[in-house]
Amino acid sequence: MNCPADIDSPLPPSFGLLLRQLRDGLVRQLDAEMKGALPEFGFSHYVGLKILSHRSPCTANELAQALDQTPSAVTRLLDKLEALGYVRREPHALDRRALQIVMTDEGRQMWIQLKERGDAAMAYALRDLTPDERDQLISLMTRVRDSLNSP
Predict the structure, then answer these.
(1) Contacts of the segment 133-139: beta carbons below 8 A, 24+ positions apart
(2) Cβ–Cβ < 8 Å for 55, 48
(3) What share of the chain is helix, strand, coil (3-state, %, to 5)?
């Protein structure tokens, strides 16, 4: 059965669909920006180094929680970042059974490059908004996020 589109009265996007479209668009834009730094880099590498830039040293499990990823996905990410020399695994200072992930100097330098590219992607996404509109958007999205995370 075909559902003809009524061009004169399009339905407004649902909140969930709109958020998904925004996320997908940002991921595409960030992936394109990251490819300029390293062809094999993408969104997951950007987010991983971003979190590590603030939380290193941390355990792989802590990183997985921060990324909202499975430990196996984070292990693959860390394997790649370690092979590139951006992180290293060291014995945990307090728990000899655990390893901690430490960002190297090379990793911090790469993060500076990636952050510039990420900032460019965000500026591109928000280019049609005034500074006041940007602040309002961030404020409203923060409130929605906080509502979803409160009991």
Answers:
(1) none
(2) no
(3) 65, 5, 30
> C-alpha 145: how far from its chain's center?
16
Domain locations in the chain as residue ranges: 42-126
pLDDT digits 0-9 by tens, 12-22: 778 888 889 99
What residue has token string 């790649």?
A: 80
What is the rounded distance in angstroms from the CA atom of residue 64 to the CA atom of residue 75?
Answer: 9
- Amino acid at the residue 2: N
- Which of the listed CATH numbers 3.40.50.150, 2.40.30.170, 1.10.10.10, 3.90.180.10 matches domain 42-126? 1.10.10.10
Prior bond of 57 cis (ω within 30°): yes
Locus of tokens 């969104």: 43
pTM of the complete model? 0.75
Q: Enumerate residue ranges in the chain where pLDDT < 70.
A: 1-10, 37, 39
